[in-house]
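Might I ask for a little of your time on a matter of protein folding? What I wish to show you is a protein chain and, alongside it, a tokenised description of its three-dimensional fold. I should value your view on which stretches of the chain appear to form regular backbone elements. You will find the record immediately after this paragraph:
***
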Amino acid sequence: MRRRPLTVEIDLDHGGRWTSLRTSDHPAVLAQPERPEPVEGRSDGMREWLWHRPVVATDRTSVRPGEAFVDAGGVEECFPTVAGRWDHGDVWSRPWQGTPTDASVAALGWQLRRRIEAEPTGLTVRYDLHGEPGHGVLHAMHGLYALSDEARVVVPGGTPLRVQDVSGDGAWRPGRWPDDGLDRCGPADGTARLAVVDTSSVRLVDGPDVLELSWRLDRGAGPVSLLLWRNLGGWPDGAPYRSIGVEPLLGAATDVDTAEPDQLARPDVDGRLEWSLRIRGYRHEA
């Protein structure tokens, strides 16, 4: 298995969104080009990892703070919550300041800074959040991935989790990985499930390509988890589509207002909360 460098493209004007995460000959962090190449059929032969929903691309670029979430794919930053009164948080719809490698945004009394380092061994993402000491928040790196029906999401077997049947009664229940097939991406079958998994690493395996993500809390207090969104055409009502979200999560819940106190991350006495993420790409070669 050979390690592959990764390149990421960032749209600072629209939520600091990641619009591309792909294997490349040389690692890089770039601004999104004015005319991005379609995800399908890349001319350079490299693997694009991010899923996109072109039908809403125009709506995504015209959104304003406080408006309803537009699910255009890529990677969105969801802070200070994922669900609830701010659907997908309050920073995804705001312009970010800085550069693709070092960007920041202010919202709801918080300052969020993100730094991305691209090296031959992969990407390192560092988050620095500054706000009220002890105030509980959630932060998800909300990535939607272009994964085939045969792709697998690899987490150690037996890992504790909580799962919600979004396409069913909406109730949460405890379980253990892989809990009736959460590890299999699969074709559209009319189901949609959301899981909070007690892990700090995950591997995506799709044919010969592998993407590894691992994350940790560096400053402050609280848990880290994996948020898995496995929508196989079971959401939304009336116009469902297939999408797979694999989301490193600072915290262990989706709604900051209904979470238990120990499910939230909290800044230290100086108001600082820091966490980091590593992303590595590999390819099996004959």
In short: The chain has one domain: 2-283.
